[in-house]
Structure formats: structure tokens, C-alpha cells
Design brief:
- This protein has a single domain (15-160), classed as 2-Layer Sandwich (Yope Regulator, Chain: A), CATH 3.30.1460.
- The chain has helices at residues 15-26, 77-90, 121-147, 152-160; strands at 29-34, 37-43, 48-56, 61-71, 95-99, 104-112.
- By secondary structure, the protein is α+β, with helices and mostly antiparallel strands.
- Helix 2 packs antiparallel against helix 3.
């Protein structure tokens, strides 16, 4: 997912201002709840994604949560947790988790900005692209476990299989 955005910023104290600028330029649906949080809505390859980007000034960290529109039934949660563990072993950045009460699946990623002059447009852009790409890549595996009754191993193998070359 490539995000075409022009960099009009010199120096910004709050990195959420950069994210809001990206949302305006890309005509994304968004809601800036406060100085420390912005919510974005995306149409992903397999469904709608709801991103929340938060700024924690005390620890100088930009945090992203991308919730998938998937609810894991109680009888599939153990298998889903096994799948998320297998997926997370393959990720270099961020991780997937399942929230216990709702059975909601989300991708989370934190960007530490200590000793840096704020977040760049490129950093914010990459953060969102990485999240959406990860969700697009692993959404089908989650569906295999929830709806097709597949094992975590079978679902992970299907999601992690990457073809080489072109046909």
C-alpha cells in the first residue's frame, strides 16, 4: 500500500499532526479525539480496518493499533492464539494480539521517538503501511481458523507461503 503524501512540515512537536495531515491529503475518514489520539478508517484488501494512533509524550512513543473486523468465537480462541503466536514469530516489526473479552484481533506497533525531533512524514507513512500490509497478509489465515475450522499450523502455512518469481 503506497501512500502518496507531500511533506510540508519542517518541525512538528506532536507526530499526530503529521498523521492528521496525511489523513486530510489522502481523504481518509478520521476523527481526532484529542491532542494525543487520532482514529482512522481504511478499506483493506479483505475488510475494514480501524486504526488508532496515539502519542504518549511522557515516553516519547507513537503507538498504532489496527483492529480487524473479526471476532473470534470462544470455541476458536485457543487455536487463534496459537495462530497469532506463529505469525508473530515471523514479524520483524509489531505484533498481533487477541483481546480476551471481545475476541477482537489487532495489530500493534510502537515507534520510540526519544532523542528525535518528532516523527517524520516517512516514519508515519511507513508505520501505517506496515500495519495495513500485515493485516492484509494475515487476515485470510485468521478467517481460516475462525470460519473454516483450520488448525493454526495449516492457516499459518497458507498465509506464510510466498511464491517466488512470476508465471
Amino acid at each position: 500500500m503506497a501512500l502518496p503524501v507531500q511533506n510540508e512540515f519542517e518541525e512538528i512537536d506532536n507526530p499526530l499532526d503529521v498523521v492528521e495531515h496525511m489523513a486530510v491529503q489522502n481523504k481518509w475518514v478520521f476523527d481526532r479525539n484529542s491532542e494525543n489520539e487520532i482514529n482512522l478508517a481504511f478499506q483493506g484488501q479483505w475488510g475494514d480496518y480501524h486504526l488508532t494512533v496515539s502519542w504518549r509524550d511522557q515516553i516519547e512513543t507513537l503507538h498504532l493499533t489496527c483492529a480487524l473486523e473479526l471476532r473470534v468465537p470462544a470455541n476458536r480462541r485457543q487455536e487463534m492464539q496459537a495462530l497469532l503466536n506463529l505469525i508473530n514469530e515471523q514479524l520483524w516489526i509489531g505484533h498481533f494480539e487477541m483481546w480476551d473479552q471481545e475476541g477482537q484481533i489487532a495489530y500493534r506497533y510502537g515507534l520510540l521517538l526519544a532523542a528525535v525531533e518528532g516523527a517524520s512524514l516517512e516514519q508515519c507513512q511507513s508505520m501505517i503501511e506496515i500495519a495495513v500490509d500485515a493485516c492484509d497478509r494475515f487476515y485470510p489465515a485468521c478467517q481460516y481458523v475462525i470460519w473454516a475450522g483450520k488448525t493454526a499450523k495449516d492457516a499459518a502455512e497458507a498465509a506464510l507461503f510466498e511464491t517466488a518469481g512470476t508465471a
